[in-house]
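INTERNAL AUDIT FORM
Audit reference: QA-55
Scope: verify that the stored structure record matches its stored sequence.
Auditor: D.O.
Record contents follow.
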Amino acid sequence: MNCDDVQKFIHAYLDGEFDEADEASLRTHVGACAYCREVVEFEQAFRRRLKSSITSPAAPAGLVARVLAAFDEIEGDELAHEEQVARDGARGAHDAHDAHDAHDAHDEREASGLWGFLSLAWVRRGLVPALGLSAALAAAFVMMRAKSTEQAEDMAEASIRWHRRRVPLDVKASSLAAIRRFFSDKVKFNVRAPRFGGGVQARLIGARLTNLGAHEAAYLVYDVGGRRLSVFVVDKRALPSGAARSRIGAQPVYWHDAHGYRTVLYQHNGTGYAVTTDMDRRNLVRLISTTK
């Protein structure tokens, strides 16, 4: 480890993302370098101050009353909708089926997102009055984050499955421009094949049109020092935005280790990426940090 490494990976280190060997190497350098030691101590102190300054003020009583009234209105709409579905059911099996589909769609929309969580009956009748709106919002945030993390994990697992299969490629090309032309009329987003700097020897081999989970994707294969690197390029909106994250330098990432492989989900210049490989953690961190 050197001073540049400390500056680049300090957040990953403080977030506990280093393995034992990397942590020992960084600690050794920090112990011998007064400047880096000061940087680490400052960042640690800043995090402590930030954590201690975060409070959860109680919501004004008037605001809580308005929110609860809104919940009651939602519940009334639900009852009216259920009554309408019951009436529709008497008109025939076909109409009942359509009404059931509409009801399912309504429930799915209401159950998604922060307000969907808060509109659940047990929240309306118990949690909000007992804990206050701010606590209910915090609980909703935790639930949403857990759901986003699960979605990110599913996407990472799908990336690993593709990486292990070694499927044939639709186009073999080392030119980024050729890859972009190939996908220009095949997906609804701009396929920006990542370029890696910092002296990383990454050779683009080819690409394939595919799906990553429920999302269309451009599957790119690189050779990095004799190791295969799978890169899925997706619309940035396909990446779960609320998943628990760490950092590589200033870049927020979702990191997933499983089955002997490592996957990193991240955004860069408006494009979403899922990168999977069996290279060691340090080299993958260095690679991601040089994305252009």
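Auditor finding: record pair retrieved intact. The chain has a mean pLDDT of 76.
Action required: none
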